[in-house]
Write a structure and sequence with these properties.
77 residues
Amino acid sequence: MCLALPVKVIEVGANDTAIVDLGGVRKEISLALLSDVQVGDYVILHVGYALTKLDPEEAEKTLALFAEMNAEAGAAS
């Protein structure tokens, strides 16, 4: 199974890299497949690569859904 997640770009670095945030976890990723990514943009992340930019509203809805599912899973255990 493959999973692609929306992440927020918090820093754009050299050599087509960026630092992204996903729920407090920060990770360096590759922007080699995209152009014109800015701080504050949301991108779809898969295996360390940003695949596409994502509408901020859609990204926030998806992240809220993941958080809700995580909270429900925690309450069930």
